[in-house]
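Practice problem: YagK/YfjJ C-terminal domain-containing protein
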Amino acid sequence: MYLTHQRIFEYSGQLWLINSRKSGCYTPMLKTMIEQVLVMLTYYKRVTLIRFDLHQPTNTATSKRITQFNRRFKQKLIARYGVNKVGFCWCREQEKAKAQHYHFVVMLDGRTVQASWGIGLLVNEVWQQMGGTYWLPKRHYNLVRGELNELSKAIYRVSYLAKGRGKGYRPPQSKDYGASRLKPNVTNYPHFK
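Answer key — structure tokens:
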């Protein structure tokens, strides 16, 4: 994977400021993560983007725990909010701690979900049942299609997940990152064709 130390990253005809200081950012991760944010905006005029961290007590060799969390979390989101599209990105990191941790970003219909506190309750419910702890920053992002200011701040925040530091300390069968695989709604954004 290519690691960039540039502060600006071009994607989809737009220049994005990214958090590449110190360890750089992996470009395949950046592309995937930025794409999923933009794809969500093809479905919803307003998108709420929330980032949180998941910590676990012991190291695991596979990505099964994060896959299991994502499945359970998505089921809770659908049951509670009735959403039909859930965008997400996650990365696995391990540096000095004995166990890896995950950074996670979830993107939802901004008309249905406008704040992070309810999402934090669901994260806590699911991850705590799995034996982990979580951290939810106070800041979330309310994106509006066509408005670049808040979107640029959110992309900068999401780019942190693609940082070089902490990646690669895993067995070959595990992944460093994952994301939803939503396809764009080309009616709203024909340049995605």
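Discussion: The chain has a mean pLDDT of 89. Students who identified this feature from the tokens alone can consider the problem solved.
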